[in-house]
């Protein structure tokens, strides 16, 4: 009996873990899960897609690398083994090729599976019968999977998403900070046009950590012209941690969506002890409770966003209390340790008795 972790691309988990120990970046949950379970990691670094992988990839509109990983894994798994796939992208090919084997347990962390394309893949690849447990960090995605696949709580499990609460921590403010600072991070489903409209006439700095070489991604996220008080650039991990510490308010401004877009910035802000203004979306239901360190606004509502931002800045006297609440929430719900423990215990439960056979 063995445990396997499947990633959708090559990733040097050992190097990430080493630099995390040096404080250069957050730890990686899959490095922790590997250590917890003594698992083998399959990331495609040792395979090269051949003509068959490319043909299947073209037919299914999935990366040939994912099929190559799945084919190699099929040759290596044994009865009683448990597999954790970090996403449905590589997870569905793994389930298709490995999930039919006797006593091989495939589990998948699902991120956004309610699109028509993903629904078709779930059906054609017979995921219901080949996946032992579906995980998701969005309650909307959990509800969809239970309804669409007609499965119960034992087969579709909600898991709070995680961040490294030991890396993202409160700390001293930069000595050159001149005025209130609002910050935000990320590009996925981000609506920085609303944030710009909410803050353009305020006497504050607005800093965005969001960089991409894809101009289409940037044009969807940002207004055509940034206000004078708004800047965006790439921040290294230590720089990003300091940006959170400097922020008076963190804003997670989103377009409507049904998956957990924006959750990473939300968790990192809480872990850093910062108050958060966040767009209430279907995908984040369950994460967001208006009050304390969190303020909710409707999608595209610049007036409400402005009011929430200025209100939190004005409540500077309550900052220590809100900071404590934010940190407590992050540690209780969003620690990497809790996330890894939940997944590891599920995988172990699937393999109970395998070592006796």
What is the compact description of this entry?
This protein is an alpha/beta fold and 357 residues long.
What report would you give on this structure?
This is Glycosyltransferase involved in cell wall biosynthesis. With 357 residues, the protein is an alpha/beta fold. The chain has 2 domains: 3-161 and 335-356, Rossmann fold; 181-333, 3-Layer(aba) Sandwich (Rossmann fold), CATH 3.40.50.2000. 43% of the residues lie in helices and 14% in strands. α5 (88-98) links the parallel β3 and β4. The mean pLDDT is 94.
> What is the CATH top level name of the largest domain?
Alpha Beta
Q: What structural class do you assign from the helix and strand content?
A: alpha/beta
CATH architecture of the largest domain: 3-Layer(aba) Sandwich
Radius of gyration, in angstroms, nearest whole number = 21 Å
Number of domains: 2
What is the β-strand count? 12
Q: Which outline best applies?
A: globular
CATH topology of the largest domain: Rossmann fold
Adjacency order of strands in the biggest sheet: 2-1-3-4-5-6
Low-confidence stretches are none
The portion of residues assigned to helices is 40-55%
Estimate what percentage of residues fall within beta strands: 5-15%
Mean pLDDT rating:
94
Individual helix count: 15
| Termini Cα gap | 10 Å
Give the SSE order as H and E letters: EHHEHHEHEHHEHEEHEHEHEHEEHHH
Name of the CATH homologous superfamily of the largest domain: Glycogen Phosphorylase B
The major sheet is characterized as:
6 strands, parallel
């Amino acid at each position: 009996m063995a445990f396997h972790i499947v990633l959708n691309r090559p990733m040097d988990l050992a190097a990430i873990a080493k630099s995390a120990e040096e404080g250069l970046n957050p730890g990686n949950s899959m490095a922790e899960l590997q250590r917890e379970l003594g698992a083998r990691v399959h990331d495609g670094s040792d395979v090269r897609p051949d003509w068959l992988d490319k043909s299947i990839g073209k037919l299914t509109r999935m990366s040939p690398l994912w099929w190559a990983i799945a084919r190699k894994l099929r040759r290596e798994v044994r009865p009683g083994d448990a597999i954790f796939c970090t996403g449905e992208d590589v997870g569905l090919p793994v389930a298709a090729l490995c999930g039919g084997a006797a006593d091989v347990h495939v589990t998948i962390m699902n991120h956004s599976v309610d699109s028509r394309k993903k629904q078709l893949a779930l059906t054609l690849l017979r995921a219901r019968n080949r996946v032992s447990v579906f995980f998701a960090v969005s309650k909307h995605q959990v509800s969809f999977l239970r309804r669409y696949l007609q499965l119960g709580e034992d087969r579709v499990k909600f898991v709070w998403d995680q961040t490294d609460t030991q890396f993202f921590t409160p700390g001293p403010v930069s000595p050159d900070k001149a005025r209130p600072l609002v910050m935000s991070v990320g590009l996925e489903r981000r609506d920085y046009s609303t944030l710009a409209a909410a803050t353009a006439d305020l006497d504050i700095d607005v800093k965005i950590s969001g960089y991409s070489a894809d101009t289409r991604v940037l044009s969807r996220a940002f207004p055509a012209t940034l206000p004078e008080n708004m800047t965006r650039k790439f921040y290294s991990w230590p720089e990003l941690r300091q940006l959170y510490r400097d922020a008076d308010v963190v804003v997670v401004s989103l377009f409507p969506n049904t998956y957990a877009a924006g959750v990473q910035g939300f968790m990192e802000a809480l872990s850093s002890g910062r108050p958060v203004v966040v767009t209430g979306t279907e995908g984040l239901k369950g994460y967001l409770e208006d009050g304390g360190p969190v303020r909710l606004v409707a999608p595209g509502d610049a007036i409400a966003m402005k009011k929430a931002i200025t209100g939190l800045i004005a409540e500077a006297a309550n900052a220590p209390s809100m900071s404590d609440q934010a940190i407590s929430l992050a540690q209780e719900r969003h620690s990497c340790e809790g996330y890894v423990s939940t997944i590891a215990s599920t995988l172990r439960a699937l393999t109970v008795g395998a070592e006796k056979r």
